[in-house]
Amino acid sequence: MIWAVLLLLSASAFGAVMIFERRSVLSGFLLLCTVVMSGVFLLSMAQRYPDWFSVHIFAHILLDMELIILAILLVAYPLVMIPVFFVEGIILIKREGARFKNVLSLGLAAALLMFDIIFPFIFDLNKRGIMTYIYWYLTLISLYFIIQLSSFFISNFLNLIHFKKNHGLSHIIVLGCGLSGTKPTPLLKARIDKGIEVYKNNPGSKLVFSGGQGSDEQIPESHAMAEYALSAGVKSGDIIKEDRSKNTIENLRFSNSLIKEDLKGDIARTALVTSSYHVIRSLIITRRLKMPCIGYGAKTRFYFSLNAFLREYIGYFRDSRVTRLLHLALLTLIYLIFVAHIIK
């Protein structure tokens, strides 16, 4: 049966990616495919072999769970997602200011409201016309971004899962994210605290605090991070400060160089610690830099996380823009051929 084969292929590919290299959005996409294929497979089994399906309770329960989750998602999309992003966006702007990077969630909520409610209300989409074809095209592109965002989110979540505390790490890189005067911000404190937790769970490891001095900062971030760690009981000999970096790529590249110097030829077993929404994109960078690395995420306030996660996806889209734009161009071409066929 074709659906059984597709399910086996997607599940096998997902397992292989998780074993050999899960620092990729492909891990989330393959899990999504596996879940969808399992649902379609179970539905086909229920239709073709109803007697067999009725006596296998586990298969019945699994299908019911997938259908319930699908129904919840379909209801939650217009009734929950739009209000949540509106409220979260307003709270973020109120607390952090009306800067461009803080209006992403509010902008997404407005776009969803326009697409799902206002556009269909203004135009009669039952008639085939230019606006209907535009709406179908926007639906196709929206579906692409929904799948991309879902894969990105799932991949981020998968890389936060660790079944053991002690990975025999040699170094833990803690990424900086700004200071308040000469002290770490609450967001940075959460990262440092998580880094110290991982450090304590891996005896013999060292903490690499990574962050240079911004134009509006009095001291390098790494120096403030080190002082905070010392006050929390971390030994000075277990602290390495990387104070030249200006962005995440430099954070990881410069930290990797310092780790190699510290190990003097030994094999590095590295982890990075950052905010939970920032893990997958940071790990993708470590993969490009050929750094063996796992990731840990520090807790972040909910009102901040949604907008920050959208910002991370935009950064991922920018980093892989050639591939993403090729995807969009291909989808556009397929849609134009489809519309041309219908019009004929």
* Largest β-sheet summary: 5 strands, parallel
CATH architecture group name of the largest domain: 3-Layer(aba) Sandwich
Strand content: 5-15%
What's the helix-strand series?
HHHHHHEEEHEHEHEHEHH
Number of domains: 3
> Percentage of helical residues?
55-70%
- CATH class group of the largest domain: Alpha Beta
Class inferred from helices and paired strands: alpha/beta
Taking pLDDT < 50 over at least 5 consecutive residues as the criterion, the unreliable ranges are none
Give me the side-by-side strand order of the main sheet: 5-4-1-6-7
Compute the average pLDDT: 86
Measured between the Cα atoms of the first and last residue, the distance is 36 Å
The CATH homologous superfamily name of the largest domain equals HUPs
Number of helices: 12
**Tally of DSSP β-strands:** 7
State Rg.
Answer: 24 Å
Explain this structure to me?
The chain is of the alpha/beta class and 344 residues long. It folds into three domains: 55 residues, no CATH class; 124 residues, no CATH class; 130 residues, HUPs (Rossmann fold, 3-Layer(aba) Sandwich), CATH 3.40.50.620. Helix content is 67%, strand content 9%. The protein is built from twelve helices and seven strands. The strands form two sheets. Strands 5-4-1-6-7 form a five-stranded parallel beta sheet. Strand 4, helix 8 and strand 5 form a beta-alpha-beta unit. The protein is globular. The two termini are 36 Å apart. The model has no long low-confidence stretch (mean pLDDT 86).
